[in-house]
Amino acid sequence: MNIPSESRSEAEIADYVAAEMPWEPTWREGETLWYGDRPRVVLAGHLDTVPSQGNLPGRLEDARIVGLGASDMKSGVAVMVELARANAEFGYLFFPREEIAVEESPLPEFFETGALAETELVIVLEPTDNELHAGCVGSIVARVTFAGESAHAARPWTGVNAIAKAVEALTPVVRLEPLEVENGGLTFREVVTVTRIEGGVADNVVPAHAAATLNVRYAPGRTRSEAEARLRQLVGEVEILSHSPAAPVPAGNPLLERLRKAGDFALAPKQAWTPVAQFAEIGLDAVNLGPGATRYAHRVDEQVEIAELERTFEALTSFVVGSV
User: For 11-136+247-319, which CATH superfamily applies?
Assistant: First the structure.
């Protein structure tokens, strides 16, 4: 955890993981590491973290590990490495650039190798509090702009205030209640959040321009185009900056039921976007299961219970199928 690895700066952590693994990579491209030979089940985890909030170095505190990446998701990566060192027969995939726009993901390049041709289940060790999180919500980042006309702030009626137009247009969005949507027997919540707003050039000038950034989370079952159309219904014309699709809840996979029983895991919806969506796009069943605490992900006091690390390790050890 004390190796800094913010997105786009994962070279050192990738080298560290490669040195700790008991085998040479089957395939490596940059910071993406793959270990496996047509496995039935693959464990996957990203090496990057969100930016530091003064929470490095990490520390051991009582029965917890506290610091940047403790929950999301170096705890999951650590479990993967220890499972490999125990010769647990999975495929192992470590990759960078997950905490940023999906357009920078290295996974599509890896998929082109055909290494997952016989894979039946992918387990992404994102933080889930050791619940089995199926599916995931899609994520859209969009910008909406507002045009006005500049004027002297002492005579605002001679201009058009772009920020005022933004406030008027965004008020219904801010007040929008979460929309509950069921998919595969699980309930996801669709939300729209205003995450940034900017405008104006000086304290005594009526602003002629304002812009807001929105983050949309939408449930499985909506296509990309349907999700973007709903956003435009809410706020009008927008510029799509990034779009990560939702993933459906896997159905009828006996390995998934075997995994659930191996750790007596509760089944819950993933109310976040994770790479399970990228695996789903190429036709693979994928779920999230990891020791990290979802309530601490991305927080300044990010942490994980040591007992949860052990629980994930033990459950996956008892689940082992296939061969590396």
Answer: Zn peptidases (3.40.630.10)
Candidate list 31, 72, 98, 308, residue with the active-site label: 98
Give the active site residue among 10, 31, 48, 302.
48
Domain parsing of the chain, residue ranges: 11-136+247-319, 138-244
Choices 2.60.40.1930, 3.40.50.1110, 3.10.129.10, 3.30.70.360: CATH for 138-244: 3.30.70.360
- CA 255-280-47 angle, to 5 degrees, is 90
Inter-residue contact 72 to 49 (CB < 8 Å) = yes
Q: What is the pTM of this model?
A: 0.88
| Segments of 219-257 assigned E as strands | 239-244
Percentage of the chain beyond pLDDT 90 is 95
Q: How far apart, in whole angstroms, are the C-alpha atoms of residue 148 and residue 160?
A: 5
- The two beta strands, 132-134 and 138-147, are unpaired
Position 324 pLDDT exceeds 60: no
Catalytic residue list contains 98: yes
Query: What tokens appear for 44 in the block?
Result: 């996957």
Query: 72 pLDDT exceeds 70?
Result: yes
Structure tokens at 96: 């960078």
